[in-house]
Design goal:
This protein has 342 residues and is of the alpha/beta class. The chain has three domains: 44 residues, Orthogonal Bundle (434 Repressor (Amino-terminal Domain)), CATH 1.10.260.40; 130 residues, Response regulator (Rossmann fold); 129 residues, Response regulator (Rossmann fold, 3-Layer(aba) Sandwich), CATH 3.40.50. 43% of the residues lie in helices and 15% in strands. The protein is built from twelve helices and twelve strands. The protein has a six-stranded parallel sheet, with helices on both faces. The longest helix is centred in the first third of the chain and has 17 residues. It is elongated, with a radius of gyration of 26 Å. 40% of the residues are buried.
Length: 342
């Protein structure tokens, strides 16, 4: 039997620049210059420093450097619902782009209350995060003011708060198309399923769907459920099909709710999609393309949203005095089998 490799004893603290200086036989300032691009240092001295750093396992303390430069490089990603597929995809895309940009993404998850969101942001301010990006939740006015007084860019995704930089999809345009598409599929009893929370993006989807349906002579039912998840979709489906006039065309404000509505319609009421019921969702999460759902929906591109957020961050850091920046991205309709063809 071969012997196990000998492990290096665990140190009590990180290897310091002074440790490297002692190992290389140079000054502490020489170590600093060796790791500073463009600094003046003799090639042989730099070679000694790098060899000593490699032997000791030294890595530059970027946190300390950032504090000296009054820039931490931390960027906070704040969200309350990271377990949803769409939010997780956006967080993943943002993390990759921020790391490429040279930032250190810091994920902060908060509870449902506004106080939780404020506490999350105050934590990021305490660590001198150079920006905060809200993936969900609505930043209150007091938090926006606090960020401004500290010179910290604050960016909201899929929110339209006045005076704040934001990136959003064209919720209203997509919802109008959803109403038109269901009507074109000869649906005559329409419904829209949403959340009781009434976030700005959901309000835009519901109001635009209602307006387009009203203009065509229809009065859609609006059903509000506590949570915009699969369980919320099940609850919505049971409420929609429990009795009375059932809808034959339903627009759900996200895909997870649409899945629940479809499963109740088919599994508990024997309805056939799309013969008896047409359903449209929003987000185009991967499960929407599964054969079990084949859900017609609107695609929000996580990579495009993340790239737009980085663009806004670059613009804001270049001009702190500029007016609020807004980027609106299209939500592309993905035609699938949950809506009758026309």
């Amino acid at each position: 039997m071969g012997s196990s490799p000998k492990l290096t004893p665990m140190r009590r603290e990180f290897v310091s620049a002074q440790d490297v200086a002692a190992q290389a036989g140079v000054s502490r300032s020489a170590v600093s210059r060796a790791f500073t691009p463009g600094a003046s240092i003799a090639p042989e001295t730099r070679q000694k420093v790098m060899a000593a750093a490699e032997a000791l396992g030294y890595r530059v303390n970027d946190l300390a450097r950032g504090l000296l430069a009054r820039r931490s490089r931390l960027v906070g990603l704040v969200a309350s619902d990271l377990d949803t597929p769409f939010r997780a995809a956006v967080a993943s895309a943002l993390t990759a782009l921020l790391m490429t940009r040279g930032n250190v993404p810091t994920l902060v998850r908060f509870g449902p209350s506004q106080r939780d969101g404020i506490a999350a942001h105050e934590t990021l301010l305490s660590y001198r995060a150079e920006a905060t990006i809200f993936l969900s939740g609505t930043p209150p006015a007091s938090l926006i003011d606090l960020a401004r007084r500290n010179g910290q860019p604050l960016i909201a995704l899929n929110r339209t708060e006045p005076g704040i930089d934001h990136v959003r999809s064209d919720h209203a345009g997509a919802a109008r198309f959803a109403a038109e598409r269901l009507i074109a599929a000869e649906c005559r009893t329409l419904a829209v399923v949403t959340s009781e929370r009434d976030t700005p993006s959901l309000v835009q989807r519901v109001e635009a769907f209602q307006a387009a349906a009203n203009q065509a002579g229809f009065a859609p039912r609006v059903l509000r459920i506590a949570d915009t998840d699969y369980a919320g979709g099940l609850a919505a489906g049971r409420a929609l099909f429990a009795g009375g006039e059932r809808p034959d065309g339903v627009f759900c404000v996200n895909d997870l709710m649409a899945f629940g509505v479809m499963d109740v319609a088919r599994g508990e009421h024997g309805l056939v999609v799309p013969r008896d019921l047409c359903v449209i969702g929003f987000d185009d999460v991967p499960q929407a393309a599964w054969r079990a759902y084949d859900l017609a929906t609107f695609r929000q591109d996580p990579d495009a949203l993340a790239a737009a957020a980085i663009e806004v961050l670059d613009k804001r850091q270049a001009s702190h005095e500029a007016a609020a920046i807004e980027i609106v991205l299209p939500a592309t309709f993905v035609e699938r089998g949950s809506v009758r063809s026309t």
